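Re: Re: token formats

Sure, here are both.
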Amino acid sequence: MKTVFVTVGTTSFDELIETVTTSETVQAIKARGYERLVLQVGRGSVLPAADSCPHITLEAFRFKDSIAEDVKQADLVISHAGAGSCLEAMGAGKSLLVVVNDKLMNNHQLELAQRLHQDSHLLYCTCSTLTETLRTMDLSVLQPFLPGQPEKFANFLDNALGVQ
């Protein structure tokens, strides 16, 4: 069963969870052939019920010791732009769509998402453009991010975030 896994990490990003479970977004997900939607909602106040999205299998949880199995089973990962979540999805070789939380102040998520997008490792959008991005995205343009080089990722983050 083709699966979309959505993660917000340890944060709260209710706007993403609310947006991804709207009927319009679920329709866009279904139109791409996905049949299952798994949500990791973190500290957020929104925890959708299994029957809240008709026509798609929905599972939601707050936290697990590890989301590695959820990432492994996913055909598409939709994530907040946290470095750890991005690295886990890219390291697992998964297609990654990052949703930047544009409501955060002093937000370095956008710089990280833009840089990883420039290098064709992920696609990114905001909650307001998520549905349209799902409708029009071309996952075939994504290039693997080679795992096993943590120092390269650390340098990459330093450069992307302007830390020298």
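Second one below.
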Amino acid sequence: MIGILKSMARTMENALNGETFTVEYPDVAPEVSPRFRGVHKFSQERCIWCRQCENVCPNDTIQIVQDDKRNGEQYNLHIGQCIYCRLCEEVCPVDAILLTQNFEFTADAKHEFVYNKEQLKNVPWYKDIDPLESREPDRNAWIGEGDGEIDYQ
């Protein structure tokens, strides 16, 4: 009984001092943590079709279909069964797949959560934040787009 009274007193204290804890979504976009893992973004131009992301995925979320010359024909990602562990992003040698901070995706049926490479390419950045630009250490030098000398040690 004392615990209920203490929690009610705390609630009334917060209600009377005028501070709000809620966000009026979708009118006001909520702040997400910089470490938040949201919808994937895929760059077909960067991808070398090494299939490392498919091999490292713990629950077979990523499916890659290649032709006889190892060119990627299909890149499918089942967003509904993804656990957002970020292993696919970490193992990619050319940063072709990134987890954005975008959490706004819905579907009416389970099969609509399967995204192909074109749909993943068109995923918008959350508040125009590109994770490649804010990443430490600077991985652009690793993939040949950075300025200056590359130190391989």
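The domain at 32-141 is CATH 3.30.70.3270 (Alpha-Beta Plaits). The first strand starts at residue 40 and ends at 42.
- S.
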